[in-house]
Every structure is written in structure tokens, then in C-alpha cells.
TrEMBL record:
Domain AMP-dependent synthetase/ligase residue range list: 22-452
Presence of the UniProt keyword Ligase in the record: yes
Annotated keywords: Ligase
Top-level division of the source organism's lineage: Bacteria
Any Pfam family matching the protein: AMP-binding
Record-linked CDD domains: LC_FACS_like (cd17640)
InterPro entries cross-referenced by the UniProt entry: AMP-binding_CS, AMP-dep_synth/lig_dom, ANL_N_sf, Chloroplast_AMP-bd_Enzymes
Name used for this protein in its record: AMP-dependent synthetase and ligase
GO molecular function terms noted in the UniProt entry: long-chain fatty acid [acyl-carrier-protein] ligase activity
GO biological process: fatty acid elongation
Length: 637
């Protein structure tokens, strides 16, 4: 294993790339096999292009500490633009080019940006003509398209900017760890995104300390699929590229083929990505003849027993944290008995699974939501190391992550260096003992500077002692592993990593005359679901108009009784589904992830009396989640 490059003495992101260029010059840094033409950029080329981008911006009049909006998606030129903006002395405000038009315009305006970098002319066209009403000194296209000659805006394409930069001097800019590097906008309950201010120091904390988790070697291949502007993908990209890896860009359509083609050593992803790989493997198992399926299932079961026993023996079982010496000894003996069967399963089955995803996997890093236990266990069985981490955009993002040395399944791992985790009572804020669930507070060098121009919102989440309120519920093990058990705040994170604020969608849905109350669910699931308290009077009226006989059980009916009633008839279910689809799609800023794919009816209204609403008539989501856990779980089976 080669020694990691130490960046602990630097003060700004801009200082990384000359060091990387010197260390890894001829190694390929960025490779996009799906672009036309194919893009291959060495570390020497990368540093040159970043420098030319920065000099081009300065030649166009960008001053230190200016803000530049960067609206583009995952590609090598995104990375060049991101670092070029930062090296020029500016900070960027980033978002996907596919985001809704009004959201992009809001971010541009709120961030006080003076210029715009966009993926292509299509993105620019989407933002016209409102840009005429904003301060836009110039626009840079990351494509090679020629700008319209009749546009009053000053527009340069990527090559034109680099040519300008190649013929312009660089004006050195003093940057410190306190200097603002980027604004990453997150959704708020009001629907207005908030700009998370991340400094050079916030991001450098991640780059300097990820080495305690995994150590890439120069030339290692990393497959990149997540949005580059997202804090999770972005900081990992910064880290691995600071260590000389080759980053290969893929997409959902090409992902599985690229795993085999490029055999990456490392990859970061959200739970949905690992679920899709798992589902593909399971599909292949199901396509075998009956005898082979029985053989596969036999070995998987024996290997699962082996793995679970190994966990207890090694004190790495979340369900047996306090196992006695005799229990651990028994588990060790059981594992020894099962080891030959597990080894045979590996030779016959699991080895082929690993070949199917590339033979060189050192680690898959999972974040953006919790990984389902059965999927975590499956990858352990087939010996594909999966390291689950935890964090938020406001924490740059990583606070905790599992390591190869301590990979406690079901947990998010121990804190990164210089990071503190406290578990407190959500109401009293008193610190709670180990293994007791409470609100997760975080303090460390990666905690954001605050929300841009929103001091009140900042004060709500960061107290005077520097503790950031994550809004998540969790607990810590005696070895300081963090286990996330729920969300104290409302945000729902789907398994594809998308954050959904439920309140605006719920507000839209209750506009239906047939929906009295609704609560969205779907944490760590593929899609949103909903618990619906129907308006029975309106449904009765509709049923009469449709000449249907609607028999409704009492308010405390069980889910089985509701399913057996005419409320579960096809006409009623179709009516409610049409209402949900119509109201969600009509909502401003609609995204495909906002769709409610599953729902169940409950007949007891949420109320103060039954403990499901607060005194201010807000639904107590954790209480409802617990009360209807079986029904919610049933939606996703």
C-alpha cells in the first residue's frame, strides 16, 4: 500500500491540485467513456484546465469572494468548473441543471451570484428571459455549443473561456480555511431552499480525515455516478482525486456494464444503487433451474448463519452488544463448524457474484440513507465490503462511517477524527447514556458556517457551543458507533438519496374533497407512501353518484377490516390514486420523486386526544410511524 499524500498543512482547496499534478502527472484523473468524443484527462491536463478556467474568470472581471452559480451535472467539466471558480477566489452556488426552473432562478438570486456557469444552451434557454432581470455579468457554457449571436448576454463556451484563460495572467488570491468555498442549497419546510455555507476548512476536514476510513492508491479506479454538486459525492471526489485515482463517469443505464468493464476498486452510492445490484443478482439466481436455486438458497442460508455467528464471536453484532464470554465462545464454535460450507459456497457461487461486479472491489461506500439489513448481510456473505456512513449537507457531509477494521453492520460507524456526537433528550436537551435513543447532536470542523443570509435559521440548528442539531434520532454503542433509528425532523430521504419535504405535498393532497388528513412515509424506501384518513362523507356522496354501495367500518377498524370493506374496492382506490396523482403533479416545483406510489387508509383521525397531534395541531410523525409501523411496512412488501 502506497503512502497517502498528507494535506493537513494546506489552507485552501486550491493548494491540492499543484501537489496532485506534481505527484501523479501522467496518471489519468478523469475518464468519461460515454461522452462523444470520449474524454480522458491526466492530472497534468486537469491542473492546466482548472488554472485556465480560473484565469478566464478573472479576465472576465471576477473578484475575490464573488459568487458564481454552477448549474450542471456529473461530468469532467463540472469538476474543472467547480475548482476553477474556487481557485479564481470566488465561491460557487451549485445545483443540478435538471432542477426546476424557478428553483434555479431562486438560487441564483438568493446567492447574490454575479455570473452563471451552465451545462449547455438547453439549460440557459430554460432560465430565459428572467435572467434579464437579474445581475448576470456573463454566462459560461460547459459545452462547445456556439452562443446565439443576437443574445444581449455575454456568453462564452468552455473552449473559449479556456483560450481566454491561457492568454491571461493569474492574479493570486489569499484564501484561508475560513474562506467560503461553496453554497449548497437544501430544501426547507417552507419550500424555499437554504444555502448551506461550506468553507475551505469544512471540506478540507473531510479530505484530510477520510484516510482513516479507506486508502486509495494512485491509479485505482473509482466509478462515479452520483451528482457531483451533492456534498457526499463531491467531498469523496475531492479526497480520491487528491490521492491520484482515476475517476470514471458512468450513468444508470451503463452502470452495471461499467462495473464489469472497468472493475473499479472504489465506488460511492446511495442505498438504492446497492439495492439495484442486489436485485439483479437475485434475478439471476431465480433464472436458474429448480435444483440450482435450491443449492443457492441452501448455501446462502448456511453462510448467513456463519456470518451472524462470526459477528457475535467478534463482538460486531448490533443485536448482541453485551454478549457474555460464553455466548461469544459458542458463536465462535458455531462459526468454525459452518466455515467449510461457507467456503464451498464462496467457490461455487459468491466468487461468480464478485466477478459480475468486478473482481477488484476494495470498498463500496454507502450514504444518503440507511442500508436495509438484509442487503448489508448479503454483501457481507459474498465478501463485497460495504462501508455505511452518516452525515448531512450541513456537516460537509460525513460525521461517522464504518471502516474495514470495524464494520458494525446496522450502524453508521464511529465519528471521524475531531468529531463529537452527543445524544440528548429531544425535549430537555439533557445528555442521555449509551444505548439510549435521543436526538443526535454533532460538533466538529466539518459543521457548516451557517445558512446564507439566514441567521435565525442558523441559530435554530447550531447552538452557542457549536452543537449542530441533526434532526435525527439515534443512539451510540459502548464503542461509540452511531445507530440512526429515525428522524426527528420531517424530511424523508428516499433510497435514491433524494430529500423530500412532506409538508408541501401533504398540503396539496388535502385539497382533495376525499382526503381529510394525510401523512407521507417512505424513509429509505424507493418511493413515497401515505397514510390517508379519508373524508367519509364526501366518499359516500361520490359513491351515490356512481351508484355504488359503500359500506364503511367503524373508526377503529383494523387494516384487515378496511381491506375487506368496500373502501378497498377498485373504484374507490382508483379515485384516491387519481386525486393523489393530480394534486401532486399540479403542485409548483413538481418532481418525479414527489409521486405517491403506495397508500393505505386509516379511519381513526389524527387528533390531540389520541396523541397523534400536538397542541398546535401538527402531526406527531414519530408517534404515527410507531403506531402504524406494521401497516407502513406492509406497503413496501
Amino acid at each position: 500500500m502506497s503512502k497517502l499524500i498528507d494535506y493537513s498543512k494546506i489552507n485552501a482547496l486550491s493548494e491540492i491540485w499543484p501537489i496532485a499534478q506534481q505527484q501523479f502527472g501522467d496518471i489519468v484523473a478523469l475518464h468519461d467513456p460515454h461522452s462523444k468524443p470520449e474524454i480522458i484527462i491526466t492530472y497534468s491536463d486537469l491542473y492546466r484546465q482548472i488554472q485556465e478556467f480560473a484565469r478566464g474568470l478573472q479576465a472576465l472581471g471576477v473578484d475575490p469572494e464573488a459568487k458564481i452559480a454552477l448549474f450542471a451535472d456529473n461530468c469532467p467539466r463540472w469538476f474543472i468548473a467547480d475548482q476553477g471558480i474556487i481557485i479564481s477566489g470566488a465561491a460557487n452556488a451549485v445545483r443540478s441543471s435538471g432542477a426546476e426552473r424557478q428553483e434555479l432562478l431562486y438560487i441564483y438570486n438568493d446567492s447574490d451570484s454575479i455570473a452563471l456557469v451552465v451545462e449547455d444552451l438547453k439549460t440557459l434557454t430554460k432560465l430565459r428571459p428572467e435572467l434579464d432581470e437579474l445581475t448576470v455579468q456573463f454566462v459560461i457554457l460547459l459545452s462547445d455549443e456556439q452562443a446565439p449571436t443576437n443574445d444581449p448576454l455575454k456568453i462564452l463556451n468552455f473552449k473559449q473561456l479556456l483560450e481566454l484563460g491561457a492568454n491571461s495572467p493569474f492574479k493570486p488570491v489569499e484564501q484561508t480555511r475560513a474562506s467560503l468555498a461553496t453554497l449548497i442549497y437544501t430544501s426547507g419546510t417552507t419550500g424555499k431552499p437554504k444555502g448551506v455555507m461550506l468553507s475551505h476548512g469544512n471540506l478540507l476536514h473531510q479530505i484530510i480525515n477520510f484516510g482513516t476510513v479507506f486508502q486509495p492508491e494512485p491509479g485505482d479506479r473509482v466509478l462515479s455516478i452520483l451528482p457531483s454538486w451533492h456534498s457526499y459525492e463531491r467531498t469523496v471526489e475531492y479526497y480520491v482525486l487528491s490521492q491520484g485515482v482515476t475517476q470514471i463517469y458512468t450513468n444508470l443505464r451503463s452502470f452495471k456494464n461499467d462495473l464489469k468493464r472497468f472493475q473499479p476498486h472504489l465506488m460511492v452510492g446511495v442505498p438504492r444503487l446497492w439495492e439495484s445490484v442486489y436485485e439483479g443478482i437475485q434475478k439471476q439466481f431465480r433464472e436458474q433451474n429448480a435444483n440450482k436455486q435450491k443449492l443457492v438458497n441452501f448455501f446462502l442460508k448456511q453462510s448467513e448463519n456463519y456470518i451472524l455467528a462470526q459477528r457475535i464471536a467478534n463482538n460486531l453484532s448490533l443485536n448482541h452488544l453485551n454478549a457474555s464470554a460464553s455466548e461469544r465462545l459458542q458463536a465462535k464454535l458455531k462459526a468454525a463448524l459452518l466455515a467449510p460450507l461457507h467456503a464451498l459456497g464462496d467457490r461455487l457461487i459468491y466468487e461468480k457474484v464478485r466477478e459480475g461486479v468486478g473482481k477488484n472491489v476494495k470498498a463500496w461506500i454507502s450514504g444518503g440513507g440507511s442500508l436495509a439489513r438484509h442487503i448489508d448481510t448479503f454483501y457481507e456473505i459474498v465478501n463485497i465490503p460495504v462501508l455505511v456512513g452518516y452525515g448531512l449537507t450541513e456537516t460537509s457531509p460525513v460525521t461517522n462511517v464504518r471502516t474495514l477494521e470495524r464494520n458494525l453492520r446496522g450502524s453508521c460507524g464511529t465519528p471521524l477524527r475531531y468529531t463529537e456526537i452527543r445524544i440528548v433528550d429531544p425535549e430537555t436537551r439533557q445528555e442521555l447514556p449509551v444505548e439510549q435513543q435521543g436526538l443526535v447532536l454533532i460538533r466538529g470542523p466539518q459543521v457548516m458556517q451557517g445558512y446564507y443570509k439566514k441567521p435565525e435559521a442558523t441559530a435554530k440548528v447550531i447552538d452557542p457551543q457549536g452543537w449542530f442539531d441533526s434532526g435525527d434520532l439515534g443512539w451510540v454503542t459502548p464503542m461509540n458507533d452511531l445507530v440512526i433509528s429515525g428522524r426527528a425532523k420531517d424530511t424523508i430521504v428516499l433510497s435514491n438519496g433524494e430529500n423530500i419535504e412532506p409538508q408541501p405535498i401533504e398540503d396539496a393532497c388535502v385539497r382533495s374533497p376525499y382526503i381529510d388528513q394525510i401523512m407521507l412515509v417512505g424513509q429509505d424506501q424507493k418511493a413515497l407512501g401515505a397514510l390517508i384518513v379519508p373524508n367519509l362523507d364526501a366518499l359516500q356522496t361520490w359513491a351515490k353518484q356512481q351508484q355504488l354501495d359503500l359500506e364503511i367500518p367503524g373508526p377503529e377498524a383494523s387494516i384487515e377490516e378496511i381491506h375487506a370493506s368496500s373502501l378497498s374496492s377498485k373504484p374507490v382506490q382508483n379515485l384516491l390514486r387519481q386525486e393523489l396523482n393530480r394534486l401532486v403533479k399540479d403542485r409548483p416545483g413538481y418532481r418525479a420523486d414527489d409521486q405517491i406510489k403506495e397508500f393505505e387508509l386509516i379511519l381513526e383521525p389524527f387528533s390531540i386526544e389520541n396523541g397523534t397531534m400536538t397542541q398546535t395541531l401538527k402531526i406527531k410523525r414519530p408517534v404515527v410511524m410507531e403506531r402504524y409501523r406494521a401497516i407502513i411496512d406492509g406497503m413496501y412488501k
